[in-house]
Amino acid sequence: MREQFALIRKILIVSVVIIMLMSLLINTDGDLTMAGMTDLINRMINKPIVGTEVAELSKNVNSNLPKDIMIHKVEQPSTQIEYEAEFLDMLDAREFNRSFNYFGKKKNKTFDEDYPVITDALYSISSKHPEYMGYIDELNTTIESNGFLSEVTIVLIPRATSGNNKSIDEMLDAFELQAINVMDKLKNEGKISETQTEKQKARALYTWVVQNTKYKNENSVETSSGYGQIINGEAVCQGYVSSYNYLLRLAGIENVVGISGEVDGQPHIWTEAILDGKRTIIDVTFGDPMPDRGDKVDYKYFDISEIEMRKTHTW
User: Is 162 helix (H, G, I), strand (E, B) or coil?
Assistant: First the structure.
């Protein structure tokens, strides 16, 4: 597969060179100089594989990425949903910067000034899938153009840690491995089984997250991610939801997203899932009484109606 892509790329390079040479001969005022053309060829030859090939090379072969987003993965993203898929794929592959080549001249300035769709995509996917994006604080985007080809580079900037000295790669690896261990343990204990309905599985996982987490009001990558919940047993709402949603997909429940809103004027996030064909609202954080009461679980916010939910939550 990769050899075929390499051959196609070489053919395209030759074609591009011929077109550019003809352009330079016909129009001496062209923006592309011979030096620029040489740089372009070098970029295309040495350009890292991106786009549809990345999925084949991702670090995690058994990816738990949401399929409804990843079907929009393309080589040259341009829409919000395509960039959302790109961000998820970057985190899954443990890549925090990635470049894309686009034909056509673009101004040499920050890319998100021209295309706010990129930053909109980051905010949207951070809400939908905090289990991945909870580790990311913001992004930088830059663009370089030599007259014919523009190279766009996206850099994801991790959130600050509270001093655990672990990289984001290590935290993601630890979170995903422990989530699998938790699921195996629950299956061995008979708390999760193939004979259960989706709602029964979701309730069992709701119970596990509540009983194994203490709310910790700290703004760090640990508390805001699944790592804090599943490794340290401490989290804010984003950490609760990150673990819960990831576990739901491990249990075979595909249609799961985070919903961002407010409670008493403060940012908050909860879960919306399709369980046995029914839209279901779940706030696993609110299922954990404060102060912490050990194994006590409040099921009021499991499968709560939208009317009841809107009495305390706004979105």
Answer: coil
User: 90 Cβ partners below 8 Å, 6+ apart?
Assistant: 96, 98, 154, 156
| Strand ranges across the sheet with 266-275 | 256-263, 266-275, 278-282, 302-304
Count of domains forming the chain: 3
pLDDT tens sequence across 203-247: 999 999 999 999 998 888 889 999 999 999 999 999 999 999 999
Element containing residue 79 per DSSP (H, E): none
Residues 40-98: tens digit of each pLDDT:
444 444 443 333 333 333 333 346 788 889 999 998 888 899 999 999 999 889 899 99
pTM score, whole prediction: 0.77
Range(s) of the domain holding residue 109: 50-158
Question: What distance in Å separates the CA atoms of residue 270 and residue 267, rounded to the nearest whole number?
Answer: 11
Same domain, 75 and 194: no
